[in-house]
Structure formats: structure tokens, C-alpha cells
Amino acid sequence: MDASALFQDEAQQLAFLHAICPTCLAAHQRGQDTLEPHCCKVAVVERIVELIEELPDDSPPGTILANCLIAVGNLSTMTPALEPELETHLLRAALHAVFTLSMEKDPTQVQDLHRVLPDILDAMLGNLLAESPGTNRLHYILEHINYWIVSRVSRERARAIRSSMALLRSTITLPAFDDSGH
User: Fold this and answer.
1) Alpha-carbon distances, residue 101 vs 26, 49, 56, 123, 175 (angstroms)
2) What tens digit of pLDDT does each residue of 72-89 get?
3) CA atoms of 13 and 17, how far apart (whole Å)
4) By CB neighbour count within 10 A (0-12 exposed, 13-18 middle, 19+ buried), where does 139 fall?
5) Is 137 in contact with 131 (CB distance < 8 Å)?
6) Which of 39, 52, 28 has the alpha carbon at shortest distance from 124?
7) What is the pLDDT of residues 101-158, one digit of tens each?
8) Residue 23: exposed, middle, or buried by beta-carbon count in 10 A (0-12, 13-18, 19+)?
């Protein structure tokens, strides 16, 4: 694939991802908490998972990954909630992409993304928890993070621990957090 084709694909991918936030915002401004039809959110999230999975392993962070995480954070504020199978697929892909980021010396923009991607991931995880704030939901998300806590790679473990702590901290900002265990 030549550079112009790669750029066009990335430009199209970013255009797709950049359309999600305004779409969610416009629906909220209209007093709606859903994107119609129902399959729309599912189809969009499925495409986002594909974009994440298409990223090369151990690649430097890029705007595609950052925008995927932001888009999922925005979509998580919309109903209906994702089906567990799709959400599990999404969590596995997103956590893998962020926790396995390479640590090579990169240009400034990539270094900046390296610093903010964990925060973007944590915001996405917090939004997923806010969909149904409770101990069962928290446990579900932490199970996916905990897979990385036992990684043999120390930077992956450190990133997983950081995200776990951020998610636990986010529970205190959720007024509707149900800690009754039901």
C-alpha cells in the first residue's frame, strides 16, 4: 500500500471517528439518549473495534487509537447499552492496544499521545461504568483489566494497575453508584 492510500484510509477513519462526538452531542441537545435505529450504535462500535484491531501490534500511539477511545466514551453515554459479547470484545481490544503501546523514542506528537492515551482510556472505562454504576459492573470491567495485571511485561502491569486505580477512584464521583452488591 502506498503512502497516499494509507493517508486516505487514515483520513477516512478519522472522519468517521470525528463524526461520533457531534452526533452524540446533537442527540443529547435534542433531549434524546439514544441513536436510532438500535443497530446504529452496535454497528458503529463494531467498526471501532475493527479499527483498533487493525492497528499494528507494538505500534506507536496514533490519532486513530485516541479517537477510537474518545468515540467509545461518547457512545457509552447513549442507549441502549452494548451487548456483553460486543463490550467484552471492545474492552479486550482497547486494553490490549493501550497497555501494549511501544515505548520507542517518537516525535513530539506521538510522545504527547503516549501521555494522554491512558487518561483517555480511563475516561472511556469510567463512562462504561457510568452506564450502569454498581459493584457488578465495576467487577466486570476490572476483570478485563486484571488480565493485564499478571502480564510478564512490567509496563503492561503498571498501566493496568494505573487504570484499575483510576476506575476505582471514579466510583466516588458517580452519585448513583450502587455499592449494595445487587
Assistant:
1) 33, 17, 10, 18, 33
2) 998 888 888 888 999 999
3) 6
4) exposed
5) yes
6) 52
7) 876 655 555 567 677 889 999 999 999 999 888 999 999 999 999 999 999 999 999 9
8) middle
Max distance between CA atoms of the chain, in angstroms, equals 56
Would you say how long the chain is, in residues?
Answer: 182
Dihedral, CA of residue 74, residue 80, residue 81 and residue 82, to nearest 10: -90
The three three-digit cell numbers of residue 142, written as one number: 476490572
Calculate the dihedral angle through the C-alpha atoms of 10, 46, 149, 155, rounding to the nearest 10 degrees. 0
AA identity, residue 103: M
- What is the grid cell recorded at 45? 462500535
178, β-bridge pairs: 134
Provide the grid cell at 147.
488480565
Predicted pLDDT at 3: 42
C-alpha cell at 166: 483510576
